């Protein structure tokens, strides 16, 4: 309890697949760290989630696509994705790791 | 829905009191941005909360005091505070704004 950890460290040097790490998981909320580096969703893949998702870019750069728009995100940007609001990761920068914080609730 | 905002901007130039801004608030979860600049809890004040709190330092530097230890936090550091785990802010750097992200759940 109350041990500190750091979101910016323990990043593998090679990231063949996007990394999803659960930080907190309870019945009502899940907090996840996601690490991307040039990864994007398959071209015909859409996330369709039953929970709300609050997503924050801690570091890096990405583009999230929705059915009606595409939103560019850089360090510090956040947005809320409503339940069943379809979305996909259109692009993440290949230049550096993009570290996301996702809160599902 | 899905409008983006940024955690690192809209910081007032003068911060006489700590700033608490609610980003998300539902029955089960609250996400808050807190901005400190040299602020600390009153010397005899302890937070004693019924919810769990996950706290992340987005930027800056701080010290959180618990009954049995004091933990120094800098950019990227996070920890979980259990319900009713008494704590206080022992110190935040006066040199720059400390931006916290707090998730109560």
Automatic annotation (TrEMBL), chains A, B:
Which Pfam family, just one, is annotated for this protein? Cupin_2
InterPro entries from the entry?
Cupin_2 (IPR013096), RmlC-like_jellyroll (IPR014710), RmlC_Cupin_sf (IPR011051)
The organism's superkingdom is given as Bacteria
Using the record's annotation, list all stretches that form the Cupin type-2 domain. 38-104
Name the UniProt record assigns to this protein: Cupin type-2 domain-containing protein
The organism of origin for this protein:
Aliterella atlantica CENA595
């Amino acid at each position: 309890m109350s041990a500190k950890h750091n979101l910016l460290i323990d990043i593998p040097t090679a990231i063949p697949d996007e990394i999803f790490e659960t930080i907190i998981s309870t019945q009502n909320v899940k907090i996840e760290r996601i690490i991307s580096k040039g990864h994007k969703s398959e071209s015909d893949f859409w996330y369709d989630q039953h929970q709300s998702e609050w997503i924050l870019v801690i570091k890096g750069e990405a583009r999230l696509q929705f059915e009606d728009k595409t939103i560019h995100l850089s360090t510090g940007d956040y947005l809320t994705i409503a339940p069943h609001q379809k979305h996909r990761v259109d692009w993440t920068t290949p230049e550096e790791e993009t570290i996301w914080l996702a809160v599902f609730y």
